[in-house]
Amino acid sequence: MPLSGSKIFSRYILGAGAAVVSATLFGAVPALALNNKNEMIADPSAYFPGCACSSVFFSFVLWMIVLLVIAMFQYSEWREKKLSAYTFSIIAIILAFIIFSIPFGAFTYMLQPSNFEINEETGKYHFSQYGEKDELTGSYTRAEVEDHILKSRTGVFSSWIILGVVCIGAGLSIPAYLKRRDEKKKQAQPQLRKKRKSKGRIGTRVTKPRDEKAKKGKKK
Prior knowledge:
Blueprint: H1 5-27, H2 47-74, H3 85-110, E1 124-127, E2 138-141, H4 142-188, H5 210-219
Helix pairs in contact: 1-2, 2-3, 2-4, 3-4
């Protein structure tokens, strides 16, 4: 069965969006370096706010693409049963929490002391400060590493909590508002006059013959 134009277009959008986000997150964001063996930037102080903001931005782009694909499938001409605004808002809020939680969860996993190995000879953690492939130009002492990890984790957790509060607030307010709005629209619509119910007299009326009507007229 050949695919319709909307399906093909939506698949291209989804594939392109996934490719862009994946290439950016896994190839350009320095916070995805798990340890100093990775020659990308592995600076624990860079996880928040810089890398967190970048990841949140691309998560927002991915969220918009997903919502666009859902809208194209649900509100197209060939779709008979379409999502209401109430249901679509709930789906959008749940997807927002899931998609934005992915980078926060990844950063929480990465920001562990075991992912930042201390060089036993120098007693410091060495990393590539500017993304050099051959040289490790940055270094932190054990205390500095722990301090940066604590600050970055605090920022990530705070952002995650704020996201959860926003999603809960949106989930309680937006769908309820849309439901009330739909109810008001239904109430404001003019009600069509209903047909009068039959009292059972149809077919029971007896008509007099023409001759009897003519006789009555002559008597008068």
